[in-house]
Amino acid sequence: MTLSREDMERRIVRYGELQPCRTAFIDAHTPGSNQKENFTIIGGGVSESPDQHVHIKETPGFNIGAAGQPPHCRNSLHSHRTAEVFFVLKGRWRFFWGRFGTAGEVVLEEGDIFNIPTGIFRGFENVGTDYGMIMAILGGDDAGGGVVWAPQVIEDARDHGLVLGENGKLYDTKKGQRLPDGVRPMPLLTDEELTAFPETPAEAVVPFHVARYWDLMALAGKAPARVIGADALLKDRPGFSVELLTRGSIPEDAYETPRHEVLMPVRGHWRLAWDGNSTVLAPGDTCAVPPGLRHALAPSMTGEASLYRITNTDDPAGATWRAEAA
Q1: Which PANTHER family does the annotation name (predicted)?
Q2: I need a surface site. Which of 110, 181, 249, 325 has the fewest CB within 10 A?
Q3: pTM of the entire structure?
Q4: DSSP secondary structure, 230-266, as one string
């Protein structure tokens, strides 16, 4: 296939052009979580707010999003039905999980990646000293149909004016909004339902679901480091695969693939060339390369260069490893 420069630019979301939503989720007014910025880059994501801007609506079998937070700001405990993978673009982040966030935790640095198991409550906070950014890959075209919140999150949100309806939409009582007729509040999970969310310790999660950036850089010799996939370092099949490409492991020649490919630079600037055109991708940019497009990648400057490459697979989005399998 061929693609014009204009069409390719429409498939690139630049970091500096990201449009945040500050009311994306139920904890948007809760102290400690009320300074979050959420970004929906590819696909509709899991936002509960009609104010969320979607940059690229067409999905390649998965969604791409991001969260930006100042120091000490946290994202409240929730669970996903399908895969949720994060890598740290900027800052230092603590991820925690369990019914009350006390079952386990891990701290991630820039470039580190975490394939969070389905079926557990999870949250995260910026424990760095500056504004931080994490990029997210969510399984499935519909990102699993939303999130499941820990009961205390819904109760705290209600005390601060936000009510989540059974329809998955938020209503701000501080703005005079109310649940529409026939729409009930989202019910709290019962004690019986909560037993389905295990309290998985860190030693059953971290070794199998966290990959450190510098370990991946060492693995990416003459070939990309296989990060997530059936034959990868993190052995999982969430509906997509993840690789880390470096200066020494990029394909020597132009290539094409029958699958969707999303490029997300971590360090350095990368030149993407196709059909006699080229553009430069920087850290924080997201580029959706369509199937069948012959293209080439190369660092455009000297120094460290790395990017994550995400490719859709034939595996169902819900095929990710569950916590109770540990």
Answers
A1: OXALATE-BINDING PROTEIN
A2: 181
A3: 0.93
A4: TTSSEE--SSEEEEEEETTTS-SS-B--SS-EEEEEE
